[in-house]
Amino acid sequence: MANIGKTVKLGVFTLAIMNVTAVVSLRGLPAEAEYGLSSAFYYLFAAIVFLIPTALVAAELAAMFQDKQGGVFRWVGEAFGKKFGFLAIWLQWIESTIWYPTVLTFGAVSIAFIGMDHSQDMLLASNKIYTLVVVLIIYWLATFISLKGLNWVGKVAKIGGMVGTIIPAALLVILAIVYLAMGGQSQMDFSGDFLPDFSKFDNLVLAASIFLFYAGMEMGGIHVKDINNPAKNYPKAVFIGSAITVIIFILGTFSLGIIIPQKDINLTQSLLEGFDNYFSFIRMSWLSPVIAVALAFGVLAGVLTWVAGPSKGIFAVGKAGYLPPFFQKTNKIGVQKNILYIQGLAVTLLSLLFVVMPSVQSFYQILSQLTVLLYLIMYLMMFAAAIYLRYNMKKADRPFRIGSKGNGLIWFVAGLGFCGSLLAFILSFIPPSQISTGNNTVWFSVLIIGCIVVVAAPFIIYAARKPSWKSEDTEFAPFHWEENTTAPETGTTIATQTEQKPVNKNTTE
């Protein structure tokens, strides 16, 4: 019964929409709308130095290991050993757990705007208790849907991505065009500078969070075995998703900036306010509750995609002997139920931080920054691994390859992604002056201590692992260095440490 879910195959369009749903969230538009015309520069800059390198590198690595499980654990582990591979998949899982309350905050705000009294809607959206309750309801709903299996996840994510993200984004752009065509006054200065004022350091700080908006394109690597002909179809799905992502962000941000003055932009409420203002202008205010419901459904779909993805990756790795048997328990259709429950408990505890933070907006920002930091550590390892494997696995089959000959292009693409990630990592520690984040001591403490604890945890778990943790039905294939040579983290020969398969020198190199 545990293998039933594996018979489900995802189509190219379904996976592309799952990628868009996982990557794109309209909740990020207000943060960038504060920059006016120069927001386009930030989107394009981040796309060039992060989104495109991520999509290309993930496509090569996923196609390279299309017949092996693990996602980023496999990619990083093949290059730097099991410890760092475990760190990579751990960071992908834990950062998504920390991210849930932030995206769900936007979902709670969307639901608050279902009412017809705008002032009361805004008051409700700012209420911490209301936000906490709605966050937990949406999250646990996503968890229970995930327990139904990949087939349910794919259907809800596909529909939710269209209804809650792509259609609202297109509608926002259309409303902006109609507004201007009917003589509406643009609140955004399109005669301003495309290039931001780099003399003001604050301009870079909040913009660093744009990397999180683009994060997640590699997550499809976890589903590489769930798609037909992955060597061809996975890269295709990634590129389709990337193009849609950039277009949605740039045009959506402009559309929001047209209707809301820069000084009035609020990170959690302005998207709904923007729709409200447009609908009021065309005398169709009754549509506001409809779009609020659609956006809330989009949040559910986005969370569902993430609940199903990283948890599946950490589960597969756990069965290979990296997590205690408790975390390897599944329901009757093979879904990782205990991991989902533990993840839900963590989200519930994190959501209680609403009580101690000065505002919903400050809570939203500090958790977003912590998520960025943790995720960027994983990306730094992923980009470095792609370069390293070009030399360590020279003869391995690469159905999708960055550059037809030589390694110059992989150095450029992965190096660009590495440098972009490192820049964003450094900037993410600095509190943005545009937002009241409360006490700076709390800000730095949460970010620094949070990073240290989360990064240390997988090394402690790895050191404590026992042979009994390895599941008898694990399908996790050994690393190439376990089959052929020596372990990169110990230097010991395969004869002293492999316990999974006999040596087979024809599998990789």
TrEMBL record:
**Bias-annotated ranges (Polar residues):** 500-509
**One protein family per Pfam:** AA_permease_2
Keywords in alphabetical order:
Cell membrane, Membrane, Transmembrane, Transmembrane helix, Transport
Which Gene3D superfamilies does its entry note? Amino acid/polyamine transporter I
Q: What Gene Ontology molecular function terms does this protein carry?
A: transmembrane transporter activity
* InterPro entries referenced in this protein's UniProt entry, alphabetically: AA/rel_permease1, APC_superfamily, Glu/GABA_antiporter_put
> Cross-referenced NCBIfam families, in alphabetical order?
put_Glu_GABA_T
Task: Report what the protein is called.
Answer: Amino acid/polyamine/organocation transporter (APC superfamily)
Look up and give the organism this protein is from: Coprobacter fastidiosus NSB1 = JCM 33896
